[in-house]
Design goal:
Elements: E1 35-41, E2 48-54, H1 73-87, H2 111-149
Antiparallel strand pairs: 1-2
Length: 153
């Protein structure tokens, strides 16, 4: 993983001024190594090994106490994908969907019909469970009444 063609390095602490034009910053280096993934065999045992190395150890940490800040979603995705790659020996992580897609109801339906479908999808399973429970309750009551009416002598 490398930086863009226009990159630079600064010694910390860095105060970045958004009002200052970009040309005034010294972005003369390019393709700085930021991280990498290594895969291979260990020399002595020949067993397979994997390693992920990031140039900044706290890119996935949001700070502590008063210094807490919101994490960038791309940093979190990079970190979790690295962990998935390290822990997945069977290739199951490639089957995982990486993007959430929205599947809206067809546009040909009117707004009232769309609302009816949404409520139906919500209420129908509840009604089915309640109906099943009611049927079981009635059948158990019938069994209890039959058992109570039988006399064993």
């Amino acid at each position: 993983m490398t930086s863009s063609q226009t990159a630079g390095t600064e010694t910390p602490p860095v105060a970045f001024d958004a009002q200052k034009p970009l040309q005034s910053y010294n972005f003369v280096t390019s393709n700085l190594v930021l991280g990498g993934a290594l895969e291979g065999s260990l020399a002595d045992g020949g067993s397979p090994a994997k390693m992920v190395v990031y140039g900044d150890g706290d890119f996935a940490v949001n700070g502590e106490g008063q210094r807490a800040q919101r994490l960038a979603p791309d940093n979190i995705n990079l970190f979790t994908n690295g962990i998935d790659w390290l822990s997945d020996d069977t290739g199951l992580s490639e089957l995982r969907t990486k993007v959430v897609t929205s599947r809206p109801i067809k546009r040909e339906l009117s707004d009232g019909s769309k609302q009816l479908v949404k409520f139906g999808n919500f209420l129908l399973p509840l009604l089915l469970v309640l109906g099943y429970g009611f049927v079981r309750l009635q059948s158990r009551r019938q069994k209890k009444l039959r058992w109570a009416s039988e006399r064993y002598v």
